[in-house]
Amino acid sequence: MVEVDVSVPYLYEKEDLIRAVVSVLPKTEGQILDVFPTKRTLSVTDSAVTYKMTVAVALPEEVESGVLKKKKTVRLYDPCLFSVPKAAPKKRPLVVGLGPAGLFCALALCEAGACPLVIERGLDVEKRKKAVNAYLLGGKLDPNSNVQFGEGGAGAFSDGKLKAGKNDKYKMKVLREFVSAGAPEEILYETAAHLGTDKLPDIVRTLREKIISLGGTVRFSTKLKDLCVRDGRLTAAVLETPQGEEIFETDTVFLCTGHSAHDIFTFLQKDGIAMTAKPVGRGLRIEHPRETVNRWVYGDRDTSGLPTASYHLVSHLPNGRSAYSFCMCPGGEVMAATTEPDGVVTNGMSNFARDGRNSNAALLVSVFPEDFQKYAENKENIFESYPNSDKISPLGGFAMQREIEKAAFIAGGGTGAAPACRLEDFMKNRSTDSFGEVLPSFPKGTAFAAPDEYLPPFITDTLRLAIPEFDAWIPGFYAPDAVLTGAETRSTSPVRVERNADTLVSVSCSGLYPVGEGAGYSGGIVTSAMDGLKCAESYLLKFLSENNSF
User: Fold this and answer.
1) What is the dihedral of CA 303, 304, 306, 311, to 10 degrees?
2) pLDDT tens across 274-330, in order?
3) Given CA atoms 328, 329, 334, 335 in this order, what sign does their dihedral have?
């Protein structure tokens, strides 16, 4: 099969794809055996809404050979297949965390026959969903099973975006498994694909059941408490279970904990595991009416049948910082995403239909490791929760994060409500006493408070510089009644657990694989899942090489 790039109308049929292929390869008319999309991107101009597509084309062998020779724009179709070698280690590997990285790391290990133990500090996705709903309705927060922790990871309560780079065997493995678990087939080629919070639980549960059917063991409400390391080699893991402490003997741990497991990174530092601080983004959420965002993108045309519109903005500012939109959730809600009872954290989520009254996005400002120290200069007790830390250590990012979340909790009235204000009031440094056209969607309620009450001045100053820039790109973005809700502090991990670039093993502990977003190597569902596959594959190849089992 070959691949060609074509353009087709937004509402196209298979016959439209064939005609588009013939326009590129005119001598193939009547000889096309099959066509199917491998990549699809929506293109919106003043005159039309179309799809820019890459299409796989099945042709007779002699015709395929001819077009490959004559047409430089034609490429061989690569099915991007992923497979793992068989392996049977004497000591079962341990996978810590059942978010995207842990799910796909465990799946690859099981397909190889390595039969890992998979532990998750939170609940299974069904019970987790009930616990989250109870908290949002006024119940008590479960610090181990919430919007951040539990089966499916933080991505299970998000828009379920599936963005990643080019198609390769890792990405296509992830997408195909999602489809097998119940996701729509369009995610295999849609560049802006998403799953939706409403569909993710069933998909996650199906993947977990597949892991168990292939020999994996999954234990919930089980937390990694520490590692046992001797002479730079992993010998066991200490688990905290409902029955008490347990020692699990293993020489391999895949650390797939996500970006919110502060306790994990604290004991890693105690154990001498090499980590470095990394830049992050911190800020808040902005909400506009969904139909307003649609008009920005589609103009006055009829939007029935079109996907709910989204946007992405970035501005590099004179003060040396960048401000940017992140995790845009069309037709979605602002979620309560804290893991601690005295903090307020925002995140975005959308159901598959993306039909909520508002659309929201994070507005983040670049924060650098040196900012952790500067922020701490006026916060003498900021590091009390991190006794092994100091103002320039990797854990400084977590300390700063916690302080912002506590400040947001206080600004919101100390009840779990989020601080919120109108955009115009923020820009003019005045108090908000009522909302206008846009009402906040934060499920725990809101209290009037300016972002200056919980964010450092360098963040609020940068946001005030960026808003007019964003409005220049999207006229109307600076809408007076748009709502700002905060704080958005968990966009990514502030640390990177250092690993060997070739083997993907920790540079300071043989047998420890830092994986995914929490370890600092991905950002989002697909890239985290891909990193899980890559780490599992690296381990399997290393195991087979050492045991001469190829």
Assistant:
1) 40
2) 999 999 999 999 999 999 999 999 999 988 889 999 999 999 999 999 999 999 999
3) negative
